[in-house]
Every structure is written in structure tokens, then in C-alpha cells.
Design brief:
- By secondary structure, this protein is of the alpha+beta class.
- It has 2 domains: about 15-105; about 120-210, no CATH class.
- About 60% of the residues lie in helices and about 15% in strands.
- It contains 11 helices and 5 strands; from the N terminus they run H-H-H-H-H-H-H-E-H-E-E-H-H-E-E-H.
- The protein has a 5-stranded mixed sheet.
- A hairpin with a 2-residue loop joins strand 2 and strand 3.
- Helix 4 (about 35-45) packs across helix 7 (about 85-115).
- The longest helix has about 35 residues, at about 85-115.
- The radius of gyration is 19 Å and the shape is globular.
- The two termini are about 30 Å apart.
């Protein structure tokens, strides 16, 4: 289990948001520059005996290398010469190392919270391959049988409505429906900060789905 730690970027929200909106900046966080971060952290979770955030940093450095992140920082700094290079490096580090860890750890946290509501079941994180193929973050088993797939999303996901975002959501649903056809029903579990949104309603939905599939 990953340790209970979350990264903070420590950058002005205005600067952080402006950098996030810049297409020139965002292109450097593609797989060809920083690697497949979700696959890397999934592999890290499977392969590493200890699972602290420092272990994650060491693992990433061994696979991709922090020098790659430094080079990205320098290229972004050319576009934003008024920003201190150390600030840009913190931004890049957070986008790659911090956000990947935070998102992955958040999924475990939500799984832990759900597990407390279903003592007669086992909820486990899916591996990268299944998550990538079906957009399913966790699975619930009862008496050794797969009964439910779970997709974990921040509540902001519901509000995404740009053309690009709606297309992404459409693609996610297609993968989810494929999972339902091949494996089991699925449900979306939303969170806000550290809390499951409408937790009682979510638990009731899961119980209803499980009851219908007994």
C-alpha cells in the first residue's frame, strides 16, 4: 500500500493554471517525453517492496531519468523567460511525479473507504493493462467471483464539457461498456477532496447492482 502522502506544487495558482492551459507546455507531458506515467507507477506498485513517495521518485529516475525533466524545464523556460528556472522545474516535477502519485494514491484511498462499507467483498486495484483497456480502476469480488467494476473520478469530471472533454468521456464510456459486456457491471464513484460524493447513494447503488446479479 502506498504511504499516505500527497505532493503540493507550491506555485502561485495563477502561474500554475496559465502553464496548464498552454498547448506548448502541455505537449512536453506526452508519453514520448515523460514516459507512460500511469504504467510506471502501476509497475512500481507491483515491483517495489517499500512504497513511499521517495521510492516512487527513485523508481521513475531509474526508468526515465530526472535529466529528461530538467530538459523539459529548460525548453519551457525559453517560452517563459520571466519565470525563475527553479519554479519551472518544480512545476514539471509536480506535473510528472506529484500528480501521478497523487492520483494513484487517491484511488487507493477511495478503494479503502469503499472496502469499509463492504466487509463481505474484496475490492482491489486493477493493473495498468485492464485500466487502460477498459477505464476501470478497481474491481469488487464476492466469494471469489467478480461482481463489479469501479471507475474512480474527481467530481470535476462530471462538469467537463468542452468538445475535447466530451469526446474523451465518450471514449471512456465505450471502454466501460466493453468491460460490462466481457466481465461485469460497472459504476462510477466520484470524490471531492478526500470524501466520496453522495456516499450513501453510491453504496446503495452498489448494493442494488450486486443484488440484481446474485
Amino acid at each position: 500500500m502506498l504511504e499516505d502522502f500527497y505532493y503540493q506544487h507550491g506555485i502561485s495558482n495563477i502561474i500554475y493554471k496559465n502553464l496548464n492551459k498552454d498547448k506548448f507546455v502541455n505537449k512536453f507531458f506526452a508519453v514520448k517525453y515523460v514516459g507512460s506515467c500511469m504504467q510506471l507507477i502501476s509497475d512500481f506498485n507491483k515491483e517495489s517492496e517499500t512504497k513511499t513517495h521517495k521510492d516512487w521518485e527513485t523508481y521513475y529516475d531509474s526508468k526515465i531519468g530526472f535529466e529528461e525533466l530538467n530538459q523539459i524545464s529548460l525548453r519551457i523556460n525559453v517560452q517563459y523567460p520571466h519565470l525563475d528556472i527553479d519554479l519551472v522545474k518544480r512545476y514539471v516535477f509536480f506535473r510528472v511525479i506529484g500528480q501521478t502519485w497523487n492520483g494513484y494514491r487517491k484511488e487507493f484511498y477511495i478503494i479503502e473507504n469503499l472496502q469499509k462499507e463492504f466487509n463481505n467483498c474484496t475490492i482491489t486495484k486493477t493493473d495498468f493493462e485492464k485500466d487502460h483497456e477498459y477505464c476501470i480502476d478497481a474491481e469488487m469480488h464476492q466469494n471469489g467471483n467478480l461482481v463489479l467494476g469501479i471507475q474512480i473520478k474527481p467530481i470535476s469530471y462530471k462538469k467537463m464539457n468542452t468538445t475535447y472533454q466530451l469526446k474523451a468521456k465518450e471514449n471512456h464510456k465505450a471502454k466501460n461498456d466493453k468491460y460490462a459486456k466481457e466481465y461485469a457491471p460497472y459504476i462510477y464513484v466520484y470524490y471531492d477532496k478526500d470524501e466520496i460524493v453522495d456516499k450513501e447513494e453510491t453504496v446503495n447503488k452498489i448494493n442494488t447492482i450486486m443484488h440484481l446479479n446474485i
